[in-house]
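Look over this one:
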Amino acid sequence: MFERLREILRHGIRNRSFVVGGLITLMFFLVALLSYFWTPYPIGDINITDKLLHPSAKYLLGTDHFGRDILSMLIVGARNSVIVAFVAIGIGIGIGVPLGLMAASTRGWIDELIMRFNDFTFAFPSLISAIMITAIMGPGAVNSIIAIGIFNIPVFARIIRGAALSIWQREFILAARSAGKGRLRISIEHVLPNTISMLIVQATIQFALGILAEAGLSYLGLGTQPPAPSWGKMLNEAQTFIHFAPQLAIYPGVAIVLTVLGLNLFGDGLRDVLDPKLRRDR
């Protein structure tokens, strides 16, 4: 395992997307982790006398219309984005991967049923689906997680099924079947380990989309609810003051753009590093 990790890092440092995206992603997670131990000011502190202040030594990024420290809200907002996106990805992997493996190993009507369910889900854009689900179930971080996680299920199911179908044609699978192993055991012991690289790359991409979806839902008032800060909620609140306090929208907007860009670059670089064919091509 450690040999494999060293090999990935050795090839990764030669890939600009992997390095730049990895550094941005690492910074994002470190900021989210930092929020558990320290913020410049408590996020619940409201000081109307200090409202809409520009950046200064006291408030590094200024304050909002309630006098809250923007930097503190951005730090805690990163944590909320990580939690929502991470748990939603976990739901997608936890349900989608077994469905994809089942579809590839059984084929027939089970495969057809799973794939038609995927097609039905993909007929609705992810954000629209999430809006419908949270509108029915009510706003809140938990319902946002469920909504984003439900959309991730067919994504991972389709990815794993496609990869598993090609693996089932390999010689070592034929040898395992000749040894008397059942389809379930082959899927777990041989097929799943050979899809891990693809799964990691897809999870990175879906993580970025999960952050975007969480920000979109919070912007519409369906995601993380006050007083918990959210980058999307900060953008929503900044609309009223956009003409004379544009920094209220710029800071969370830049945070979202940088985070999603970093995750996408990291996922693209990780795909190149984990795929020997792409390494040879480059």
